[in-house]
Fold this sequence. Notes:
By secondary structure, the protein is α/β, with parallel strands linked by helices. Helix content is 37%, strand content 24%.
Amino acid sequence: MNTDSCSNIVVGMGEALWDVLPDGKKIGGAPANFAYHVSQFGLDSCAVSAVGADPLGKELLDTFNRNGVKHLIETVEHPTGTVQVEVDRCGIPQYDIRENVAWDNIPYTDRLESLARRTRAVCFGSLAQRNGVSRDTIHRFLKAIPKENNPLVVFDINLRQNFYSREILDEAMRSCNILKINDEELEAVSEMFSLEGADMQKRCMELVERYGLSMLILTCGTNGSYVFTPGEVSFQPTPKVTVADTVGAGDSFTAAFVANLLKGKSVTESHRKAVATSAYVCTQHGAMPVLPADITATE
């Protein structure tokens, strides 16, 4: 990607991999899913990660190019990541994530620093921080984004297996201004950080206050989703749809929310678009379906 020719870029940063599903392998990883869906709303986006110098790495890059996913992906001396995905009868994926792979070792480069200077929003998670190399690169990138860009810095907590710690989560929440978390992750974080009270909304607002967040997004599956800010709360019910699978649905939610905020939409309207987007993605197989025009329209 030629970062010198772009401005106001929206970046997805972290794991790039192959999800090996029962019906074959599909491109995966939150950064690519996020960047792909942001681009469908007409914004410049870029997926940042690393692949190996192997056939899977080449095929992954070829697939990015074919799907129009702009990327800044380095080739490193580690194998391209794979995840064995088993989908249950309700369409909920379970993951077996290979360790010590390329995206664990994303290098910090001059090209990446140049991209940071042009970044308007970035989304990152906890999974890509399981290794110190990528964790250091992510936080160097966040610090390199100029404050005058007024960036949206989204930490989509995305807990997977045992690939996180209290220290990693604490540093990430201090580095973001928007936190996205689901109801199961909130339970784990509440125990880890000794959040008080049985009420989910109170615990969310405690996180908003503790970390000085602009927003906290709480998704509760079929029970709807919330966006908490210091001054308002938005709630949207989850539409009833026929689920094909839920792979990538959360990433599409985040992408639609961020894209609509950047286009000047209110928190409530951005939230509504995010819910519609993720509901549609759940009706499709794979994480990167083409979104219908009534969803991507922002006027």
